[in-house]
Predict the structure.
Amino acid sequence: MNKKSFIVIVILLIAIILGLCVFIAYDKNLFGIKGESKIEKNNVAEKKEEDNTNKAVDSGNENKLVTISLDESKSLNSDTEKMSYRVTTNYTMNGIYVDCNSNTCMISINWDFVNKDYFNLNSEKSGNEDIKIENISGKIVDVFTDSMGQSASCSTVLILLEDGSVEYIPLFYALKNNNIKSYGKIDGVTNVTKFLSVGVSPKSPGGGYHSIVALRSDGSFYDLTENLASLQYYSEG
């Protein structure tokens, strides 16, 4: 064996030995590489588990929302011996959007939608229109749009004021007659904190209807159909 061949063999042996050393060191995790990968994977798994837990909590809260019920014995103006109440979702008129700040409300109207869905309610109008309601008598804390009875003709915007009183806009009538404004406070309705949509059903056989409840902090409530449905603005709608 000549000298050059001997040197080549020695170099190859050294390379093989170094390779084995590197492999053993990696397998024993002497460089700390594999552990970091496992920790990162564990952190990702823990984060996913945490997210799922949060979603489960949120879902539980959503389920609680649909269990809201009224104490029918606390009705202030309806005969709950004959009628029962169930909380539902509110009904709004297509093409109408209401937005309020502390002292004014803006009603945005898509007249093309309104006239299409409500039998040319105001055939003189078309396109989009924004109308500011400025004759509201106090600071606004909430606004609510819903209907009463069994048709859109009793659609109503309710404006809750800071003192617990409620102003209203008979929406169908106001749109039809180009007279969109607050129609004043609802007589006899005081200390309201929020509004709820309800289905009202007779306890004996008969037809039910949709209504709006004005709720007070003690759980007592007004059925606003009793206050509003007989007014001329709704009977003429």
Observations:
- The beta strands are 83-88, 96-100, 105-110, 128-133, 140-146, 156-161, 166-170, 192-202, 209-216, 221-223.
